[in-house]
Amino acid sequence: MALLGYARVSTRDQDPRRQVDELTAAGCVRVWVDHGVSGTVVSRPELDALLGYARDGDTLVVTELSRLGRTVRQLVALVDDLGRRGVGVRSLTQAIDTTPGQGGGIGVLLLSIFAALAELEREVLIERTRSGLEAARARGRIPGRPPVVDTERLAAARVLVDQGQSVVSVAKTLGVGRSSLYRAIERERSQSANAGTAR
To answer: Which residues are responsible for catalysis (predicted)?
Structure first.
């Protein structure tokens, strides 16, 4: 019967040490760390390794539930699978523990409630964003960031490319990303082609 820690950060520039320190302080004998792995990804190498290592009576410990998954379905499926194997799940931040003998049934119920609330909050945020975009379009505004390659830069790029310069050197000259310039040129070409077809 051991406490097994799991830490995860979504991007390479994030530091997982805070999570590792908290898990160690909570008594974890070993901590697995997924570095630069999104919570939406189904396969997380270190979590998979931990799940393969865990035995009946062990408890998987995380600083917060979002380290294990981003959706209700992910969390509940993982906790159910571990529960069938006799492995509990403990979240330090949410104070949830599904370990048998540690209020496991209540822990599973609380986990489901917290996860459902998190998903509801996400759906409300998506709906607000969608409504805001529709309202902006109705007022004649184009939502989103302004294009990196504006019409003046695109015109200058066209002249330089027509003179024989490569798109890479033109992008450096104009101070824009190569891929952004490629996309702008392709977008302009497809718009010209569509306009020609419409005639």
So the answer is: 10 (o-(5'-phospho-dna)-serine intermediate)
pLDDT digits (tens, 9 = 90+) for 74-87: 787 888 888 889 89
Distance CA 74, CA 38 (A): 13
**Which residues are catalytically annotated?**
10
- pTM value? 0.56
Note the pLDDT tens digit of each residue in 14-57.
899 999 999 999 999 999 999 888 766 667 899 999 999 999 99
Burial of 6 (C-beta count, 10 Å sphere; 0-12/13-18/19+): buried
CB atoms within 10 A of CB 4: 21
Contacts made by residues 148-155, CB under 8 angstroms, sequence distance 24+: 148/176, 148/177, 148/180, 148/184, 149/174, 149/176, 149/180, 149/181, 149/183, 149/184, 153/184, 154/184, 154/185, 154/188
